[in-house]
Write a structure and sequence with these properties.
Blueprint (H helix, E strand, L loop, with lengths): L18 H13 L7 E3 L6 E3 L4 E4 L13 H4 L2 H12 L12 H14 L5 H17 L8 H8 L14
Parallel strand pairs: 1-3
Antiparallel strand pairs: 2-3
Helix pairs in contact: 1-3, 3-4, 3-5, 4-5
Length: 167
């Protein structure tokens, strides 16, 4: 059976977060109303949620690589990444999706886009686009729903009047 994993690194996880970086990241954590005690900085190989200890490891790859890439995963703000880990992976702890599987990562980005407070419209857009790219990378077709369309295209499809055919 083909194991479909999709992941990506943004900035290098080997970049050591400075005290100033950590202060800014803690402000992002507060903005998304996450429990700061669940985050550990500069301790691990990359930014991720670890189910066994119920902690989010935050490394240098939390920052976007907006110079060399235009991939949604690379463009997300640090706040969006923190929301992906907290409102995506952490809220689904104990479930039976393989860590790093496309559907685990899809669910994390989609869930964060839909449920995390304190995100900008752009943060939500990058999270939805990341979810779609993770499915695409795994060869899985996902049908766009009205939430996804409204976040990406800026139109409230749920409130829009239904289209009618001309007679």
């Amino acid at each position: 059976m083909l194991k479909r994993n999709v992941s990506g690194l943004r900035k290098s996880p080997l970049i050591q977060l400075t005290d100033q970086d950590i202060v800014a990241l803690k402000a992002d954590i507060a903005a998304i109303k996450a429990d700061e005690s669940k985050f550990i900085f500069n301790d691990g190989s990359h930014t991720c949620y670890i189910d066994a200890i119920d902690k989010i490891i935050v490394c240098g790859d939390v920052f976007p690589d907006d110079v060399y890439s235009r991939h949604p995963r690379d463009m997300m703000s640090a706040r969006a990444v923190l929301a992906h880990e907290y409102y995506g992976h952490r809220v689904n702890r104990g479930t039976h999706l393989d860590s790093g599987s496309w559907n685990d990562e899809f669910r994390a980005s989609y869930s964060a886009a839909r449920n995390a407070p304190g995100l900008t419209e752009k943060d939500r857009m990058w999270l939805v686009l990341d979810a779609m790219e993770r499915a695409k990378d795994a060869g899985v077709t996902i049908r766009w729903n009205s939430f996804m369309r409204s976040v990406v295209y800026g139109i409230d499809y749920e409130q829009a009047e239904p289209e009618t055919e001309a007679d």
